[in-house]
Amino acid sequence: MGNRSRILPIVVRAAVACLTLGAGIASAQAPTLLVVNKAENTLAVIDPASGKVLSRTPTGDGPHEVALTADGRTAIVGNYGAQSPGNSLSIIDVASGKETRRVDLGALRRPHGLIVRGTGVYFTNEFNRTLGRYDLAANAVDWVVGTGEVGTHMVVGTSDAGLLFTSNIGSDSITRFERPAAAGAWNVTRIPVGKGPEGIDLSPDGKEVWTAHSRDGGVSVIDAASGKVLQSFDIGTKRSNRLRFTPDGRLVLVTDLDAGILVVMDAAARKVVKRLEVGKGPSGILMAPDGTRAYVALTGDNALAVIDLKTLEPVGRIATGAGPDGMAWRQ
Predict the structure, then answer these.
(1) In angstroms, rounded to a whole number, what is the distance separating the alpha carbons of residues 112 and 322?
(2) Are residues 210 and 198 in contact, defined by beta-carbon separation less than 8 angstroms?
(3) pLDDT digits (tens, 9 = 90+) for 274-318
(4) Where are the domains positioned within the chain?
(5) Of 65, 59, 111, 61, residue with least CA distance to 82
(6) What global pTM score does this model have?
């Protein structure tokens, strides 16, 4: 009995320690929002449940977009620049909130759109009319291909990076990059669309590319496999800025920067189902992976609008910092 009484407190303490450790792990893995604040040159990490800013990391000048590695540990920020063209990427350890590396891109200027595939970070260079790739493991830019188009701004692609698409605002076009089956040059195709294509996304099933035109209020739908425009239609926007599918592919959201409106479309019917007044300068759009919420960066309000994707109504705001724009979700 005496031995058992001594063992019991040890077991209880061990159980408490395990529970505490488990809570710590759960806390560390809680979903967070990453938001670049382009007017103050920071990356904010935010708890979406409480709206609290957990950390704020300095970046290069004029950050516009952010992307995450698959494990959620590393954030990559494109330093687009403000008054003068930027030419760097900030590599940030999310857990510590530290910039671990500032990648000098040399002659590649105005890095903007970003996606990560494995160790490869694909990024547009608006000034140079190119798409580049930075290898995180090798710490080197190992691939650059020209679009020859003005304002190469955003990039989307398949999960294996076999197909990539850029929106080219000034040339009224989308560029399609197809990786060859064998070693060799990529196939690059120009796809004419409406005036000022900027917002762009690949449908969740990988079959269609949608782009919103910033200067004529239209949307173009492109067959990803062939690069052919399937349909173009008007949604009545003043200046479309970003376009995103919901995770289930049912809805498409478009921000109207000048009107302060979020346009919601039925993807299958190709029609507008709702227009929401969200605030000043709506730009970046981020979907929660479970499809319950959308977050819209309000550059003019220094906040995010939170949209319930079931009711299609605004349900809150989250303060961010000065000039929020690109976002990423860390699970």
Answers:
(1) 18
(2) no
(3) 999 999 999 999 999 999 999 999 999 999 999 999 999 999 999
(4) 1-27, 28-330
(5) 61
(6) 0.90
